[in-house]
Amino acid sequence: GENVEQHPSTLSVQEGDSAVIKCTYSDSASNYFPWYKQELGKRPQLIIDIRSNVGEKKDQRIAVTLNKTAKHFSLHITETQPEDSAVYFCAASSYGGSQGNLIFGKGTKLSVKP
Amino acid sequence: DAMVIQNPRYQVTQFGKPVTLSCSQTLNHNVMYWYQQKSSQAPKLLFHYYDKDFNNEADTPDNFQSRRPNTSFCFLDIRSPGLGDAAMYLCATSRSAGANVLTFGAGSRLTVL
Fold this sequence. Notes:
The complex is a heterodimer of chains A (114) and B (113). By secondary structure, chain A is mainly β.
């Protein structure tokens, strides 16, 4: 089955700097890669996702890149703000049918220092 | 406008005393999932329903069961909770399986004494 590795497990940056979180996946059939943000004590919420027919996707300060050949994808946050502090999870799944459930990475705790 | 509602938000039980957690959704999504999330760990999928079809993950203990009486509701039953079952239990829904956005509920935090 799918296995998702996520690095780093913790990341501390100064406000205004960029943050990059990287994930690798094992199943070449995976074709959907979302990123979830989970603030302390709250539910995970989708912040951005990418499908395998696209190499990069951007939404304001957040971008995700995908390298299908190398089977890795990354989250980039620019101009970080204290409210970006949270745990970020990457995930992977394959499309279609009743299978292909999301498998999550172990998470990255991002701390943005004012 | 809560779309995935979990009850109770906090549940305290004694070792071995059965517990039921509930999840309801107003999204009319076909798929409902139960995840277990322990402190500082990723959500771990226990099982999911695709409509009425139940799909159990291979490593989900028999102690965990689920029911989906209709499209809107799904229940997680823990037959004999152990100390290791203390966790946040997250319900999520998606329109269909695979490459679809998950909408999570706020979670039910289970404490086992």
